[in-house]
Amino acid sequence: MLVAVTAMALLASLQPGTAAAQERPTEEAGDENPEIVVQATRTGRRVRDEPIRVEVIDREEIEEKLLMTPGNIAMLVSETPGVRVQVTSPALGAANVRMQGLKGRYTQILADGLPLYGGQTPSIGLLQIPPTDLGQVEVIKGAASALYGPAALGGVINLVSRRPGHAPQGELLFNTTSRGGQDVTAYGGAPIGDTLGASVTAGFDRQSRQDLNDDGWADMPGYTRWTVRPRLFWDGAGGVKALLTLGAMTEQRDGGTLPGRTALDGAPFPQTQHSERFDAGLVAEAPLEGIGTLHLRASGVTQSHRHRFGDTQEEDRHRTALAEASIGGEAGATTWLAGAAIQGDSYRSHAFPAFDYGYTVPALFVQGEQRVADVLTLAGSARWDGHSEYGSRVSPRLSALYRPGPWTVRASLGRGFYAPTPFIEEIEAAGLSRLQPYARLNAEVADTASIDFGYAHGPVEANVSLFASNIDNAVQLRTIDADRVTLANADGLTRTRGAELLLRYRWRAVTLTGSYVHIDATEPDPEGADRRAVPLTPRDTAGLVAMWEKHGRGRIGLEAYYTGRQELDDNPYRTRSRPYVELGAMGELVLGKTSLFVNAENILNVRQTRFDPLLLPRRAPAGSWTVDAWAPTDGFVVNGGVRFRFGGD
Length: 649
Known about the structure:
Elements: H1 2-13, E1 55-57, H2 59-66, H3 74-78, E2 83-89, E3 94-99, E4 107-111, E5 134-141, H4 145-148, E6 155-161, E7 169-177, E8 181-192, E9 196-207, E10 222-235, E11 241-256, E12 270-288, E13 292-309, E14 312-331, E15 334-349, E16 357-373, E17 376-387, E18 391-402, E19 407-418, H5 425-430, E20 444-457, E21 460-472, E22 475-481, E23 484-489, E24 493-507, E25 510-524, E26 531-533, E27 540-550, E28 554-563, E29 580-591, E30 594-601, E31 637-647
């Protein structure tokens, strides 16, 4: 089907009179819109001029996904090829972001270049970030430690804030779902005088617990969440700029056995988590005459959690602080930047202090880009991190951009490292109670490479990416006995090889997008066998999306996503998952400054518990009562609501 659509699109593009639609300039493939400026590479350059491939999700697409999941960014990032949102805890619905087959702990999530969600974003954190006040989302795949240090081993997702316009504006959105969920989000932004602007975003989200197969276990956890984030923007004289942001979030999440029900051992097992997060951040820049531009970044975040795993209570606190200064500029065909940073990360557990840690990481970094010719740009960056626990590490990255006519070729090589913590996916899902003390772990080190071929001409865009990575010393869970586990470095390399294909065709108000991703990922078997396929990594995924959109009138969208087979670990019901297809449809009707919307997800009602039980016959050695989530657990869901806009230009 995808091949047929692509062939028709290419033929149609050759017909006389075909006009490209004036659609959103999302840089997911070869779209080289010159107006998109990216921040994630630190240079503030147009995306078409960056040797590092940056995929940008712009405001128009954010608004589309906002109507589907107003409360979090999971769907927003999951539909980018090569990016997979993986549920890590079916009991609480926690999920993280895997890039090109790499584990989610290697992905750094930033807000305006700041680690406002922690040095290692908790798996539940992805579901606690609303998209309401985002201007664009920037995605860099592959080792980005040369840019952002050890937490960016697998890639970076940078959430760029939405700036107020020239006139006061606001919006209010109400959403409800067929599974007992409700969302209310509000945004307001306004200029304050000639140099200041301010915005504030607030949200309330809730979901009732749902036991869809009546086994006494919540297939959809319940939660209640409040968020608020004010921002202040300053554009002073002479090019001085600053952004100040504050944030607060509180959430109560409830899963596990329902009241009056039990797990298969005959005892109740409630699983709950209360979360609180407070953060503050500053980004500023000021021109230095005759030198360049001074850039300053600083942030601090504290996160507290109160977990319950059956009869076990765990309370903890994570803290992250960052301070950074750099100077950058241009000299002819050369763009350069050099700076220093220091970051601290700490974890404290009341119940299990043996796993406490505190890391301090001073760093020096440089990067440069050289335009060799009109069609060729070379770039290099390097970062030295003096990790208090894992010593000195150097992370280099080399990139090249070749852009002849409608073609774009990007190549990149990078190395990065990751400072291990106890919180791999299995431990985050089940807690620390069964984790035994382990020997000092070695830092995880990755080498990544990619080459991208892009084409954009008229209504047709295409991009093919080939990528590979080797991770040495990957941390794995090892089973000691039926009730105890520990952590150890893998005895060998974790290898990932893959390819991405993205095709897009625009015809007037209609956009067709097709994508395909193939991943071959293997790792040393933690139980002693030679090698195995990395669990929960589909070899093949594909998507097809059709969208009709008319500014001021509305939009209609249809989508289909295929997920291939996945190897499973410690699942007594099967060793490989079944492939499945998810269908979705959405529509929005715009009536002036009011819009009505409805969205249907997973129309075929694919649900893991329709194939196998979610509950294990007995509790896993790490402490979990469920198998891994390899398919949706919520089934067919419809959501809809109303959105009001106020003011604006």
